[in-house]
Amino acid sequence: MTKRFPWLLLVLGLPAMSFAADESQEVAAERARIAAERNRAEAVFQAEQKACYSKFSVSGCIEDAKARRSTVLGDLRRQENSLNDAERKARAADRVKELDQKQADEARRQSEAAATGEARSASREKRAQEKAAEAQKRNEKAQAKASKPAPAKPGSAPDAGVPADATGATNPAPRAPLEKQPDPVESRRRYEQRQLDAQEHKAHVQQRAAEQQKKKPVNPLPVPP
Q1: In the predicted model, what is the mean pLDDT of residues 42-51?
Q2: Most distant CA pair in the chain: distance in Å?
């Protein structure tokens, strides 16, 4: 019987992934053929069984007809089981492919999110360094400006309260040092430490809430009347 169905042999020789959506019509046609062959085998058996009653050895004739029907139905059953097995393998392969695609998409999404976070962190650090550099330049300019003596007015006498050096020039009064600008590295370290402290505090609060939830007494069920 299998010589009459080369399509089924071709299907069984293909990998499970060969069952794509465009092959569903061919699979349905193969199932319809198997059903038709089964109905034909039953019809042949009924005709042969009826003819047996006109013969001398009725029992032997009927047994031979049953054997022929059993052979045909067994072969069709094997074909149907092989087709079902191939479809199960195809569905399993499609499911594995779908899961692999989801995992790949999730990995790509996490990678993109990590890259975006690193880029934002680098941008914030760069802006902090630029601000610190600008503040350092302003500080240096202010210190340089403060270190220059104020020009004396023509004809004005030296201030009695200002000490003079050996040449007779007055020395400017010492100025208070300018406020020290914050170190960008130290500021970054303190920011990261505050983030870690906040995360630890959040985890501690969640753990305490979970423990209190476990300790919460459960109200007993009402006693039936």
Answers
A1: 91
A2: 158
- CA distances to 19, 93, 104, 105, 108 from 98, in Å: 15, 9, 10, 11, 15
Output the six-digit token pair for 80: 């149907």
DSSP 156-182: PPPPTTS-B-TTSPBPPPPPPPPPPPP
- pTM value is 0.38
Task: Please state, in angstroms and rounded to a whole number, the distance separating the CA atoms of residues 51 and 43.
Answer: 12
The residues facing 164 across adjacent strands are 170
Distance CA 172, CA 55 (A): 143
Residue type, 137: K
∠ CA(136), CA(139), CA(144), 5° rounding? 125
State which H helix or E strand residue 55 sits in: none
142, 178 Cβ separation under 8 angstroms:
yes
> pLDDT digits over 177-203, tens only?
555 666 788 888 888 899 889 999 998
The Cα 115–Cα 47 span in angstroms is 77
Q: Decide if 182 contacts 132 (C-beta within 8 A).
A: yes
